[in-house]
Amino acid sequence: MFFYKKLMIIEIIVAVIVFINWGIQERKYQNIVSNYNDPIIGFAKVVSSKSEKKNTNQYLIKYQNDKYLLYVDKKVSLEYGDIIAFEGYFKSASSSKNFKLFDYSDYLKQQKIYGVLDTNKIVKIAEEKDIFYYIERFKLHLKQNLYEVFEKEQAGFLAGLLLGDKESVSSETKDDFQDSSLSHILAISGMHVVYVSFGMKFLLDLFIARQRLKNFLMMFLLIFFAFFTGGSPSCLRACLMCSMVYLSKVVYRKNDFYVSFIFSLNILLLINCYYIKSIGLWLSYFVTFGIVYFQNKQKSNIISESIKTSLASNVMIFPIIWNCYNRISLTFFISNMLVSFLIGPTIVLGYIHLFLGQFSNWFAILEKGLLSFIFYWAKSFGSLKLSRILVPSISVYYWMIYYIFIIGAFYLYHHQEMWIKRKKQMISFGFVFLVVGIFILFPKERDLEIHFLDVGQGDCTLIITPQRRTILIDGGNNEDYDNGKNIVAPYLLKNGFKTVDYLIVSHR
User: Is the alpha carbon torsion for 205, 206, 210, 213 positive or negative?
Assistant: First the structure.
């Protein structure tokens, strides 16, 4: 009991620190534009490799210890470590112009990027070769090993799968995996860390005999792997929790999953308070919790365990997928079950190719076969209507009831003696919970709502009547951008509507 009291105190302290840091960071972001209203002549360091966009090249630069995005003409070529002199303006990233839709500003905050440098005058004046320069060069060398063995599409997929470089994954591949509900495969998470840690441990066992030293090295290598692959929340979570397993061996203590679970979340929020808005973070933690909480201690065969793991994961992230992506897949379970047996060997062979390059050609046939099958599977399931069922967002209270019911039912199933001893109290609690839920969710009288959507060129208006009828006036027009698919439809779904009752077109 004393331990849990200390844990609660630590959690309160962490929450206060995160809250204070959030306020400090918000003020810093808000002051960016006001601090840089006038043209600036300064120096910055390029801290990323080139990312090719449609009409420009994108780089990440560091100016006065803060990171910014830089877009330049495709004729301008920069490399990691270049020191540039520039003249231009800093501006903050645009927030979501439409309520509840994607917020680019929040996305950049999760990567600690403070804004965008708008400039037409850039001159390279020097280069700085620090430890991060050589790490980046090594990473580029590994990517080149993949492109020497595989075709462009497969090499790009492996670069995303193994190195966290999603920029290398083609847009067509991303769409196929998203439509088939397999896009999570590209996020480096616990599955990758398991295979990487096994590989690291195997190599350390060959050269080092001292167990304590190996445990320290494993912790260091896991954290290095997390940052080497981009430091995504899901990867950091997995590496931190895995590191705590080795730390428990160093201090001769038994590792507690729930302590590691909470500790890793605290570390992530202390690193970047904006991770709290990361969908990847919530998916990673809910999947991990579901796998452990619903775990059956009775041993069974690998197929049964795989089915249980996939089922537990889907149950826990179902509300997140529903409300964040406004789509559900009735084929998700089948597609993931089939791919789960292939992705492990794909990762293992991929890391072999990553480090050996052309010397691993005799493995390439098998790896190409696995990739071809995974691509075919993603495209096939992505083309099915049952894989892309659109659903409108619903109240968070429904999902609270969902989680309370799922977790509570499973707990009582494995603690039936509690149900027998406290049957009356349980029934009373359930009755009160039901009454409160009905009161909260009972339909209430609503006012007329008028929503104005930013669709670029054009006036788009959504009217919602008190009877919850929807009237859409115009939808905007853009030959290079589908406003209906990317703005109007998502806006309707995010606000709880799947259909438009009346459509009014003012002009053609």
Answer: negative
Q: How far apart are CA 293 and CA 445, in angstroms?
A: 40
Q: What is the pTM of this model?
A: 0.88
Tokens of 165: 């470089």
Distance of alpha carbon 7 from alpha carbon 10, whole angstroms: 5
Q: At a CB cut-off of 8 Å and minimum separation 6, what does 232 contact?
A: 164, 187, 188, 280
Beta bridge pairs of residue 119: 88
For tokens 């007329």, name the residue. Answer: 448
Burial per residue of 198-222, b for 16 or more beta-carbon CB atoms within 10 angstroms, e otherwise = eebbeebeeeeeeeeebbebbbebb
Q: Is the CB of residue 162 less than 8 Å from the CB of residue 230?
A: no
Q: Quick count: other Cβ atoms within 10 Å of Cβ 278?
A: 20
- Number of C-alpha atoms within 13 angstroms, CB side, residue 461? 9
DSSP single-letter state for residue 472: E
Long-range (24+ apart) CB contacts under 8 A made by 363-369 are: 364/149, 364/150, 367/150, 368/150, 368/154
Give all strands (DSSP E) within 216-368, no chain letters: 327-328
- Please give the Cα distance from 336 to 353 (Å, whole number): 25
Separation of alpha carbons 99 and 93, rounded Å: 16
Q: Domain spanning 36-128 has what CATH number? A: 2.40.50.140
Q: Where along the chain do its domains lie?
A: 1-34, 36-128, 139-390, 396-441, 449-504
pLDDT means per 10 residues in the chain (508 residues)? 69 87 85 68 89 85 89 86 88 76 85 84 88 89 87 90 87 84 82 88 88 92 90 91 90 84 91 90 90 72 73 86 87 79 86 77 84 89 85 84 82 70 69 69 75 83 89 78 84 89 82
Q: Measured between alpha carbons, how far is residue 291 from residues 198, 217, 294, 314 in Å? A: 20, 28, 6, 10
CA distance linking residue 175 with residue 147, whole number of Å? 22
Give the pLDDT of residue 419.
63
C-alpha span between 182 and 176 (Å, rounded) = 8
How many whole angstroms separate alpha carbon 189 and alpha carbon 162? 10
Sequence-ordered list of residues with C-beta below 8 angstroms from that of 115, at least 6 positions apart, any chain: 29, 32, 33, 68, 69, 90, 91, 92, 93, 108
